[in-house]
Design brief:
mainly alpha; two-stranded antiparallel sheet; elongated; two-stranded antiparallel ribbon
Length: 174
Amino acid sequence: MTSDPVARPESSRQQGLQTSESHRAYQPRELLSMRPPSSGAYSGGRPEPKRPDKPKIKHISQNTIRSKWVFLDEDAQQKVESMFRAVELPVLAKHQSDHKKIEAQATIGSVTKTLSKRIPKMPFPPKTKAVHFDYEALVKSNRDLQHRLTVSMQTTTVLRDKLEQQKLALASEQ
């Protein structure tokens, strides 16, 4: 007897809805970590070539989530909700027709409403603060860190060049 391949995903989707409705709090099972792959030491005094970060999935046990993760305070919840509202404007500005704008606004509104209701029930890693949900502050902090990194790398390059010159001068004196 052959089964209909379209019916199987529908039944599994219904099973997923039944099991997810029974849980009161959102329980994530995986997190993405943006750590670069570990590599060996530098060779020849030159910096290692830059490699793009690859996301790695970390599996977090349910026991860890239940025992160590915390719920967000009111300030952080308000920051998340304001972040949801801020997403709406660029999406609406993208569409030219009024019909598509209304449809996009209704969709974003329903998703925002659903997520806003779930935020108080969602556990987050213990060190999560309200500042992590302030997009402008994160962008500014990222820009400042990139500037400091650029200055440090340029200084390191200059110092390495001077060190090489000093070594060559010392070798020529001997």
